[in-house]
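Re-run with default settings, no changes from the original entry. Doing this only to confirm the output is reproducible before filing.
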Amino acid sequence: MRQSARQSLWEDALYDQKYDLAVIGGGLTGLSTAYFFKKKHPRAKVLVIDRGFFPIGASTRNAGFACIGTIGEFISDLEIDTEDQLKRRISDRYSGLKLLREVIGDEHLEYQHTGGYELFTDSDDFATVCSKIELFNNWMKELVGSEALFKKTEYRGYPAIFNPIEGMLHPGKMIQALIEMNSQLGVQFRWNTDVEELDHANGLIHAEQGVSIHSELLILTSNAFTQKILPDTSIKPGRGFVFVTSKIEDLKWKGTFHYDKGYVYFRNLGNDRLLIGGGRNADYQTEETDEFGVNESIKEYMTDFTNNIIKPPKGWQIEREWSGIMGFTETKSPILEFVSDNCVIAAGLSGMGVAMGMKLGESAANIFDY
């Protein structure tokens, strides 16, 4: 670590360390990477670096859906990717959620196995999706087993497709549990540390205030913010809008719900509130940003959706709203690749970080011949 004029003699021993692995990005993927690497190599010195007080990209700012995707989304994905790659993503999402629940535990995740509904208001769209149920159920039997079969149904008067294997969880408690698990293994953390430059050839991370950190191995799990560190990466940011309603008496909607190829989603939050998010497709260009904030046109779009489709009682209000920044690849498949012999990117979860983050982290932790 570069010395500062304010660094004391005693701080040399504290700061001037060389790590075996430094993980840049303290979200689900990064914490999982550190956890699995440290479990495999107990004597290794492992450091997690994040620019926030806690990870602030998407891991603690998402809607808490534990999902693998809808048929409408799959049909759309086949326009940009191959059948084999889509099958792999579905399989990875399913096994990723299973791994997440096994490692952290349903109690610590506050996981609820509710199943998920894809809703429709257009009869032609519904007919198109229904015509593909048999196809994708055959995929499910091949990839994850018969318990994942899609079923034609309805919910509150809307045509729907039900997926029995989905659920919801608490993202904040998920991350807190992983931080504690890493701490127990001896993983170190540097929060509020904004990386300004990465000299991966020499294993150096240059951060704010003249701080440099030296590590033999580097893994970037910074997802949407990877371009800030490596400008040539193909991962693009995408902002997501989420809000929570005021209390709704006799709330009828219970479970997880998807609409418009998964671009809009909502679920109950407890017994008397709704958590609603999405709408990025209403203004793609503006939402391709790594700046937090609320797009008023999307907020209006989502408010209209709530009033016209969900139809809560009059007088409901937005109690809290926020944004999260996701990282997207062209095909929606995450990236796990070497930048150099000692540096790897593990990012680009494309809105499926909850399902795929831990599995990607496990793969990243095992990629080096250490």
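The two ends are 23 Å apart (CA to CA). The mean pLDDT is 94.
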